[in-house]
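Progress note, sequence design subtask.
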C-alpha cells in the first residue's frame, strides 16, 4: 500500500474510491446476504421436510463458523500472494456451489458440507475480501467510514432478501409455516444463480489499486502522515498480545463476550425457525426487513456511541436492547399462531435487536484498541473475535437441544440468561480495565485515553 501513496503517479478520484466502497456494500448485500443472512429462513422448511431435529440441523452454523474461523487466516495470507479478483471469484463459485449442494442433499451430512463450503466461500469475498479492498483504497484517511458503509450492505440486503426469500419459499411449500414442507428444492438453485450472477458482475469491476495509481496527493500524504505521527505520540500504547493473556480482566472480558455469543447465536440463527411457528412467511419476511433497516441505524449510530460514551456505556445500551428483544421472543411464545400481537412484538424484536448489532459487528474492533491499547490491537482483536466465535459456534446447537428437551419459551429464557450474564461480565471487566489505564497514565499528561 505504501507504493500507492507516491505522488509521481495519477491520483485516483475520491468518487472512484467510493465506487469501490459501493461494490463492497453490494457484495455484502447480495453474495454475502444470500450465502449467510437468509440461511436461517430455510431451517424450519428443511427440518419439516426431512424430519430433522432443530438441534441436529443447526449444527451447520457451528461447523461453518468453526471451519470458517480456521480458514480465514489462510485466506488472509493468500490475498498477499494471489490476485484478489481471482480469489473473489473462487469464493463466489464456492458459495454458489454450496447452494447447489443444499439443493441435492437429503441427509444431514450433505447439508453440513454445504454449510461449511458456503461459509468458507464467503470468507474469500466478505470476511477477508471486503476489508482487504477497503484497506487498500483507504490506507490513510476515511477507512473507518468506508468500512462502516461497506458492512452496512448486509443490513441493506436483509431489507429486500428476507421478504423475497419468504415469497419464493411460499411457492415451493405446502401446508402452513408450522407444519409445511418443501415440495421442491428449487429455491436453492434459484439463489445459487442469484449469488453467482451478482458475484461475477461485481467481480468484473471490484479491484485493488494498480501500481500506477496514487491514492492521495502530495499535500494529503504530508498532512495525513503528520496527523498520524501526532496521534501515535499521544495514544495509549497498552499491552502486547502476550501481556494481555496474563491479565485477569482480559479473561473475564473474553468469557463475557463468549457467553454473549452463546445467546446471540440463537437470536440470529433461530429467530426465523421460531417466528415461522407463530406467523406467516410473509410476516416473517417483513420482520426481517425491519431488522435490516434497524441494523443500518444500529451500525451507524453504534460508532457514534462508542466515540461519545466509550465501551462500558455503549455495551450497556446494547445489552439492554438485546434483553428487550429476547423478552419480545418470550412474549410471542405465549401466543397462538397468527396472533396480531405477535406481529407487533416481532417488529419490536427486529428494532431492538437491529439497534444493537454494532456490539458484535464493529464492537470488537473498537474495544480491542480502546481497552487494550494500540500496541497490538490486531492480535488482541483476534483474541476477542475468537472468544465470540467460540460462543456463537456452541450457541446455535445448544439452543436446539434445549428447545428439543423443553420448548421455545424455556430456550429463550436460557438465551436471555446468557446475554445478561455475558454483558455484566464484559461491562465490569471494561470498567476495571479503564481504571487500570488511568492508573498507568496518571503521571503522563501527554497521553490521551479513549473513553
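Output:
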Amino acid at each position: 500500500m505504501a507504493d500507492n501513496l507516491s505522488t509521481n503517479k495519477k491520483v485516483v478520484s475520491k468518487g472512484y474510491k467510493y465506487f469501490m466502497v459501493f461494490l463492497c456494500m453490494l457484495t455484502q448485500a447480495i453474495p454475502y446476504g444470500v450465502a449467510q443472512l437468509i440461511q436461517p429462513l430455510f431451517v424450519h422448511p428443511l427440518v419439516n421436510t426431512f424430519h430433522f431435529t432443530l438441534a441436529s440441523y443447526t449444527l451447520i452454523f457451528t461447523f461453518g463458523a468453526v471451519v470458517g474461523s480456521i480458514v480465514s487466516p489462510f485466506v488472509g495470507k493468500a490475498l498477499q500472494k494471489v490476485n484478489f479478483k481471482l480469489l473473489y471469484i473462487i469464493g463466489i463459485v464456492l458459495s454458489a456451489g454450496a447452494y447447489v449442494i443444499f439443493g441435492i442433499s437429503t441427509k444431514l451430512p450433505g447439508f453440513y458440507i454445504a454449510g461449511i463450503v458456503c461459509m468458507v466461500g464467503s470468507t474469500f469475498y466478505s470476511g477477508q475480501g471486503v476489508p482487504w479492498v477497503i484497506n487498500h483504497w483507504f490506507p490513510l484517511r476515511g477507512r473507518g467510514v468506508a468500512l462502516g458503509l461497506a458492512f452496512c450492505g448486509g443490513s441493506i440486503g436483509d431489507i429486500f432478501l428476507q421478504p423475497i426469500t419468504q415469497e419464493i419459499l411460499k411457492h415451493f411449500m405446502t401446508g402452513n409455516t408450522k407444519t409445511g414442507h418443501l415440495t421442491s428444492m428449487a429455491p436453492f438453485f434459484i439463489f445459487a444463480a442469484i449469488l453467482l450472477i451478482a458475484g461475477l458482475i461485481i467481480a468484473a469491476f471490484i479491484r485493488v489499486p494498480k501500481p500506477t495509481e496514487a491514492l492521495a496527493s502530495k499535500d494529503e500524504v504530508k498532512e495525513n502522515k503528520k496527523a498520524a505521527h501526532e496521534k501515535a505520540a499521544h495514544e495509549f500504547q497498552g499491552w502486547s498480545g502476550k501481556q494481555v493473556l496474563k491479565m485477569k480482566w482480559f479473561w473475564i472480558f473474553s468469557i463475557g463476550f463468549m457467553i454473549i455469543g452463546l445467546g446471540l447465536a440463537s437470536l440470529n440463527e433461530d429467530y426465523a425457525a421460531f417466528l415461522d411457528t407463530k406467523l406467516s412467511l410473509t410476516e416473517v419476511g417483513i420482520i426481517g426487513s425491519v431488522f435490516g433497516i434497524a441494523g443500518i441505524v444500529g451500525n451507524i449510530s453504534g460508532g457514534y456511541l462508542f466515540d461519545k460514551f466509550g465501551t462500558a456505556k455503549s455495551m450497556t445500551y446494547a445489552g439492554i436492547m438485546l434483553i428487550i428483544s429476547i423478552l419480545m421472543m418470550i412474549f410471542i411464545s405465549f401466543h397462538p399462531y397468527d396472533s396480531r400481537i405477535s406481529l407487533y412484538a416481532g417488529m419490536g424484536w427486529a428494532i431492538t435487536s437491529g439497534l444493537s448489532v454494532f456490539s458484535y459487528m464493529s464492537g470488537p474492533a473498537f474495544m480491542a484498541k480502546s481497552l487494550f491499547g494500540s500496541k497490538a490491537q490486531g492480535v488482541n482483536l483476534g483474541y476477542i473475535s475468537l472468544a465470540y466465535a467460540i460462543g456463537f459456534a456452541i450457541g446455535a446447537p445448544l439452543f436446539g437441544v434445549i428447545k428439543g428437551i423443553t420448548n421455545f419459551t424455556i430456550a429463550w429464557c436460557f438465551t436471555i440468561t446468557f446475554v445478561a450474564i455475558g454483558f455484566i461480565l464484559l461491562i465490569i471487566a471494561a470498567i476495571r480495565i479503564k481504571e487500570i489505564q488511568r492508573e498507568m497514565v496518571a503521571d503522563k499528561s501527554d497521553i490521551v485515553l479513549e473513553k
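The two ends are 31 Å apart (CA to CA). Work on this subtask will continue into the next period as scheduled.
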